[in-house]
């Protein structure tokens, strides 16, 4: 039983898109994630024969974001789905709510295989860290399960605020808090026992309490930040890790360890199964 914990927010703030992507400068305190590797991971996942097999979380969260957009009594002439993947939000909306959708993602393979919707859309290959859009362009920006891989979240939020029109709305969700806590603990306990120390194998997530402060600094007002716990059953650790790879959600931190010994992996799987594994 694995609780995923997306952090939710509905934030108010304020086309000539040009595809632009620049890699992070390298490892360091301000660049914990290898964005080149994340792009490769997402491209690999989107190119699999049945990518939808591992998209259950993205589908669920995309539907929940759409529900929150429906709660806003307004029609948006132009909206941006930032980090859209194969487009998990637009399929749940209609032209009465959003008239045109720009879908932007780091992985070009995801944009080649987007899920159809009734809303007219166009795609842009773009990095969430370097948005290639003019200020005051969009009335709505949505983002689902993408921003937790951004190296400089305050900067990304500030850029989102800039590309929104003065009365624009930002609705987003990202993994946060204790997401993958069980996997993190299982790997750490096994590695500590077998190898005498441990390295980070699960990327860090933003604390929910920090999001309100970051959004305020970015210029947003009328903030709403809350959390949902989504629990998913896995028979064991290896099934979970296989789905993480299929989601494009494998670890991409610069400080990751390149490999784990077989004995350590088996020990971690035993710890995970004893704590929260479910029978198939």
Summarize the structure.
By secondary structure, this protein is an alpha/beta fold. Helices cover 34% and strands 19% of the residues.
Spatial extent as radius of gyration: 19 Å
Largest sheet: 7 strands, mixed
Globular, elongated, flat, extended or rod-shaped: what is the shape?
A: globular
SS-based structural class? alpha/beta
State the helical fraction.
25-40%
Strands across the major sheet, in which order? 5-4-3-6-7-2-8
Number of helices: 8
Question: Mean pLDDT, nearest integer?
Answer: 86
Write up what this structure looks like.
The protein has 280 residues and is of the alpha/beta class. The protein is 34% helix and 19% strand. It is built from eight helices and nine strands. Helix 4 links the parallel strand 6 (138-144) and strand 7. Helix 4 (153-163) crosses helix 6 and helix 5 (181-195) packs across helix 8.
């Amino acid at each position: 039983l694995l609780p995923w914990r997306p952090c939710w927010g509905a934030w108010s703030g304020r086309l000539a898109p040009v595809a632009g992507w620049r890699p992070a400068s390298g490892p360091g305190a301000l660049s914990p994630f290898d964005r080149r590797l994340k792009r490769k991971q997402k491209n690999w996942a989107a190119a699999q024969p049945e990518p939808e097999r591992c998209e259950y979380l993205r589908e669920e969260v995309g539907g929940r974001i759409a529900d929150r957009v429906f709660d806003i009594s307004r029609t948006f002439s132009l909206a941006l789905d930032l980090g859209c993947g194969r487009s998990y939000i637009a399929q749940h909306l209609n032209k009465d709510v959003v008239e045109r959708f720009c879908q932007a993602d780091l992985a070009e393979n995801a944009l080649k295989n987007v899920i159809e919707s009734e809303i007219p859309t166009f795609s842009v290959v773009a990095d969430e860290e370097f948005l290639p859009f003019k200020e005051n362009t969009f009335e709505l920006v949505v983002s689902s399960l993408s921003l937790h891989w951004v190296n400089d979240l305050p900067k990304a939020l500030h850029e989102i605020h800039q590309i929104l029109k003065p009365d624009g709305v930002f609705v987003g969700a990202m993994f946060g808090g204790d997401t993958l806590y069980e996997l993190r603990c299982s790997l750490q306990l096994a590695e500590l026992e077998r190898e005498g120390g441990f390295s980070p194998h699960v990327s860090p997530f933003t604390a929910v309490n920090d999001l309100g402060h970051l959004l305020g600094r970015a210029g947003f007002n009328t903030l709403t930040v809350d959390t949902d716990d989504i629990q998913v059953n896995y028979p064991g650790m290896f099934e979970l890790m296989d789905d993480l790879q299929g989601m494009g959600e494998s670890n991409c931190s610069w400080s990751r360890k390149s490999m784990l010994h077989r004995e350590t992996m088996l020990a971690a799987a035993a710890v995970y199964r004893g704590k929260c594994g479910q029978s198939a």
